[in-house]
Each structure stands twice: as structure tokens, then as C-alpha cells.
Amino acid sequence: MPNKKTGTVTSDIGKAVKEQKMGKVEYKVEKAGIVHTLVGKKSFGPAKLKENFLALYDNILKAKPPTSKGVYIRKIALSTTMGPSIVLDSQGLEAMARSL
Predict the structure, then answer these.
(1) Is residue 33 part of a domain?
(2) What tens digit of pLDDT does each residue of 52-83 get?
(3) Is 29 in contact with 35 (CB distance < 8 Å)?
(4) CA-CA distance, 100 to 97, in Å (whole number)?
(5) Higher model confidence: residue 13 or residue 51?
(6) Fewer Cβ atoms within 10 A, N terminus or C terminus of the chain?
(7) Which of 54, 52, 89 is nearest to 74 (CA)?
(8) Are 8 and 2 in contact, with CB atoms under 8 Å apart?
(9) Which of 18, 81, 91, 21 lies closest to 57 in space, CA to CA?
(10) How far apart are CA 41 and CA 91, in angstroms?
(11) Could you tell me which residues come within 8 angstroms of residue 23 by beta carbon, excluding any fewer than 6 positions away?
């Protein structure tokens, strides 16, 4: 549903369209720390999906509060909309995201 909080209802249509064309992505975080977001579509191809995922991962790492201690990301599971998930190696991903 359209919502002002998510930016889908706005009086500045030009700005909203420009942000969407630039690739603006929002993600939801549950109380348990689970992040839900879209990484791409099947038609994007493996290289673009990887690039999108690593950019998202890097963005989440940058959003880490400075007061947060311990392991920030414990487990990563990636899945299609209605498919089974695949558990990824979070330490290997962190090294790849930092190299961007």
C-alpha cells in the first residue's frame, strides 16, 4: 500500500521518480534483527545480482551503531520470493564487501 513513510506518497513526484531511477532501495528490519529486502530480479544476471547484494551488505555494515559490540551479522540466508533459502558464509562476504 502507498505510504508517506516509505516515500510512495509524496507531493514532489520528480524527486521520487529520480530516486527510484537511481536505484533507491529500502529494507525492513524485524525486532529479531532479520532484514527483508529485494536484491534484484532473475533477469539481472549473476554479476549484477552479486554487485547488488554486496552493496546491500556493505550498507548494512556501515549502518552498524558504534556502540554495538560482538558479532553484528551472525547468519545470512538468501532466497527467491517463495523458494528455499541458501545459507551464506558471512565472514567471506564481509571481506568481499570491504574490497568494493
Answers:
(1) no
(2) 888 888 888 888 888 888 888 888 888 888 89
(3) yes
(4) 6
(5) 51
(6) N
(7) 89
(8) yes
(9) 91
(10) 25
(11) none
Rounded Cα gap, residues 58 and 96, in angstroms: 9
11: its cell numbers:
507531493
- Where in the sequence is the domain holding 81, given as residue range(s)? 38-98
Cβ count within 10 A of residue 15: 11
Where do we find the cell 574490497?
99
pTM, two decimal places: 0.69
Residue 55 lies in a domain: yes
How many domains are contained in the chain? Answer: 2
- Per-residue pLDDT tens over the stretch 40-55: 888 989 999 888 888 8
CA–CA dist 60, 27 (Å, integer): 10
Q: How far apart are CA 20 and CA 17, in angstroms?
A: 5
